[in-house]
Amino acid sequence: MTSENRSKKIFLSYSLVDKNKALEIAERLEGTGFDIVTDYKNISYGDNIFDDVKYLFQSSDFVLILLSKSLFESSNFKFEYTKEFFQQTRQRKISVIPVLIEKCNIPSDFLEYEIFNLTIDYERNLEKLLQRIKTIPEISFDSLSPRGFEEIIYDLLKAYNFKNIKREIRLNDKGVDFIAEFFSSNPFGQKKKEIWMIETKFYSESRFDIKTVKQVVDLYKYINKEDAKLLLITNSQLNSVVEDYLEDIRKQSYLDIVVVDGLLLKKLIAKKKTILNKYFLK
After folding, report:
1. Which residues make Cβ contacts (< 8 Å) with residue 190, sequence separation at least 6?
2. What are phi and psi of 92, to 5 degrees?
3. Whole-prediction pTM value?
4. pLDDT-based confidence at 1, cuts 50/70/90?
5. Which of 138, 154, 180 is the last residue of a domain?
6. CB 194, CB 229: distance < 8 Å
7. Domain closes at, from 117, 138, 159
């Protein structure tokens, strides 16, 4: 069975103290059409328990982690949620979704993710979580053309508050798809204008590779837009080789480059109902 045809899995991880809440959420998740697995079903509590848990999350499409005081105080916590865990989920393109079920201090490793807060407005936020999970598989780029993909990205940039978006900026026959402004805030609320060069790469058959990164970086250096940040958006998925190469570029060239690959792009689109309705939920 191919990865496209197999049943999608949601791996639900939680502290045993929170079992009742976990079972309640698992029951609601059944309506998503996914297979629901937990780290307490069908595993042996012997020496290989952490290997069993590792297998469960690695073979899943979503990992939902129920955040609570009891989870963070658990003796197993530091063994399950290691740096390797977060690296593996990124490399394997597994969607990690932290779900807050009790007010508590959240470790920094979880803060880079969108956290669904079920401690307030439980039913509404649980429904948002269910809709997010159900929507992502419906987002497909298969029927798009390169121009259609570019149109989606233009609307996405607007939806994420990029300003003064200019298309197809060309210098000496070399061009970048968009140049835009973004106003960020420091921790004290002071605004700063950033210039972003944005390149889109749409693939119908081939995959994103190091050669593509080199081409985009060379284009960035050629245009030489002072103090600009570089954003590369693709429908393809990054592999670990490309991710390592990108990290080397950032360290060696001090280049501020951000890459949004197909999996992350689907998550970003899923948050914007207007784009979902316009392009994917017709």
Report:
1. none
2. -90, 5
3. 0.79
4. very low
5. 138
6. yes
7. 138
